[in-house]
Structure formats: C-alpha cells, structure tokens
Amino acid sequence: MNLTNKNELISILSGFDFRFSKSLGQNFLIDKNVLTDIITKSGIDLNTNVLEIGPGAGTLTRELCAAAKKVVAVEIDSALVPVLNYVMSEFDNFTLINSDILKVNMRGLINDKFGGEKFSVVANLPYYITTPIIMNLFENDYNIRTLTLMVQKEVAERITARPGTKNYGALTVGVGFYADSEIICQAPPHCFVPQPSVSSVVIKLSKYEKPPYEINDKEVFFKIVKSVFSQRRKTLVNSLSGSPFINCDKNNVIKALEKMNLDTKIRGEKLNINELVNFSNIITSNV
Ligand code: SAM
C-alpha cells in the first residue's frame, strides 16, 4: 500500500464513499519527502510513544507505526474510522480514538494509553485548532518530549520570530517559554490532496526538561504577555497601566523597567522572553 500515491489514496477513499470536509481541514499529505523528513527528524524511535492528532487516511500514521513503539491517534471524523481500520490493519501497535481532540479527556487518555511514560505528539493539524492544542499540551504539564507539527507557514513564522519583529507575539512567547523550536521542512500546497490555499511548514517543538526561566507567578506572566501584545503599539508602561487583564500600578512598572536598566518608554514587544520573565518577577515581588 502506498498512500503517497494520489491515485491509490483516492481509490481507497472512494471505496469507502469518503468525501473531503473543508471545515475539518482535510488536506491529506501525499509527499514522500515531507513524510520522510517528519519521521527522521522528529526523533521518533522504537522506544517512543506517539499521540497523533488527526490521522486522516493514515498516510503518516502508517510510517509512525513502523518507526515508533506505540501510536494512539485521535480523529474526529467517523467517516475515516473504516478507512483507518483498513489501512492500519497490519499494525498491532495502533489505537484509534474517534473523538474531538478539544473535547477528549487528555489526562485520562495519556494515563490509560501511555501509563507514566513520556510521549511525543505528531500532527498534521487542522489550522483552526493549532494554537489551542499547542498551548493546552504545554500548559497542562503533560509528560511530553516533542511536538512535531505541520502548521500554516505564518504560524511557524510567528512561533520562531525574533523580539521586535512584526511576527513576534503572544504565540512566540507562549511556545518559547516551554520549548525550543526548529523548522523541519516546507510543505507547499502541491504536497497535499486536495491542495490547500496556503503553504505549510513542519515545526518541531522540544519541550524543555527543566524550564530555563524561573517564574514567580505564571498566571501574572501570561497576563502581562497578553496585555503587551494586545496593545503592541503602546509603551509597556501604557499597555500595562491600561490593561483589562491585570491591575498594574504605573509607578511599579516604571520602577521595574528602571531596575532592569531599560528605557521607560520601551514597547513590551521589544523585550525577549527572559526580559519579560524578569519584568514579571519584579512586578510580582512588588505586589
Ligand atoms: N494526518 C493526515 C495527513 O497528514 O494526511 C490528515 C491531516 S488533515 C490536515 C487534518 C485531520 O485532522 C483530518 O483528518 C481531520 O478530520 C482531523 N481533525 C480535524 N479536527 C479535529 C479535531 N478537533 N480532533 C481530531 N481530529 C480532527
């Protein structure tokens, strides 16, 4: 079976009367090079447990099962269940869960399927759930090693952006707080069937074993980040003293910036993650 062969894939899907759903982001990967890059560069080996989100017709899932210890895949579309049962029939290390990843009891699933063991996430994600999935997986402190994700090119640019650039924002800081990111490969529209209107990129996020940032209060930190980037043209002082997310005294903000030897007129978007963490720690120690 070769699911990167477009005709073979379409023929299998037609055999099950499958119709592509645009609203579920169903663009299935058919590019062998991208597939090989995902498997070889994600760091997956025969000791790795994998959680795959959105297996689709199973093109990537088959390669994952051949390379990993165990693959648990969560697919929302029940029309794909018979397709996956068919294409995955030769693999006994595969489990399919027909559910919405946003509604699944993630901790229960992880405990049940992986016990206390570490796992890696691999997903060619529907774009509409990219950010909630990434942040949910990091914020809940699951035993994750890496996330290898196919994301919209713009999302990859935002995740890997440098401070002060237009793409640097809450997503850059949110992801960078938890993980190191690395671009694995590009996946232009012709790598999929049907072809999407946008270009994609495969990105690998390696979760820090021990977070490099020592934060006093994570909740305050993320409120500061939200305030800074929802009013990014304002100075840090103004974005925080007028923030609907956090109650910050203007004088405390000025004092914190002076303590850090930063210009009191600086915009928050100029601060790197380390500086945002230090700033947040000074603010919380003053409260
Ligand atoms: N992994 C396959 C591939 O690479 O060819 C399919 C990728 S396709 C871009 C996205 C897949 O995610 C589809 O199969 C879609 O049905 C599934 N999906 C969409 N929303 C989902 C959700 N909320 N939970 C689980 N799966 C979802």
Would you mind describing this structure in some detail?
The longest helix is centred in the last third of the chain and has 14 residues, at 273-286. The termini are far apart. The protein has a 7-stranded mixed sheet, sandwiched between helices. It has a two-stranded antiparallel sheet with strand order 1-8. Helices cover 40% and strands 18% of the residues. It has helices spanning 6-15, 32-41, 59-67, 81-87, 106-114, 130-139, 153-159, 170-178, 218-230, 236-241, 250-259, 273-286, and strands at 28-29, 49-53, 70-75, 94-98, 119-124, 144-152, 179-187, 192-193, 200-207. The chain contains 12 helices and 9 strands. It is elongated and about 70 Å long. The protein is α/β, with parallel strands linked by helices and 287 residues long. The chain has 2 domains: 6-207, Vaccinia Virus protein VP39 (Rossmann fold, 3-Layer(aba) Sandwich), CATH 3.40.50.150; 218-286, Helicase, Ruva Protein, domain 3 (Orthogonal Bundle). It binds S-adenosylmethionine.
